[in-house]
Amino acid sequence: MIRYSQERKESVLKKLLPPLNKTVAEVAKEEGISEATLYNWRNKIRDSGKPVPGKSATNNQWSAEAKLAFIIETSSLSETEISQYCREKGLYPEQITQWKQECLQGFEQQKEQERRIKQKAKSDQAEIKSLKKELRKKEKALAEAAALLVLRKKLKALYGEGSEDD
Length: 166
Prior knowledge:
Blueprint: H1 6-16, H2 24-31, H3 35-47, H4 64-74, H5 79-89, H6 93-159
């Protein structure tokens, strides 16, 4: 098994990333490294949180994590800096803006979902309270009925009546 230095890995991986966006097959052929090794390296840097394009060279194939990483990286940049950043990464500033809007919509949906969950929990608590109240009433009625039966039995035993039922 061949061991590659970290510097070599980084230089090879730069060819897979924007702005070059070469395919794994092209880089494997150029560098004489197996495609499986390149896929493995690419997946490792993707898992580490670095923005890496998906299976194709189109910009629509970025993962959600990569899109979020771009949004975070560009959040403090000016428009000209964002333009420069996008040129380096092979993106358009409009894509970053769109991704930011999608994230915000996701947060709004999450907020709405949380509101519905709180509302459901509140209604569930009210239902539980009413059911407990009803259960207490029924337990009291049952206890009263049991006490009456015991008293009736004692009364019959006291007056010496048989075990005849009314």
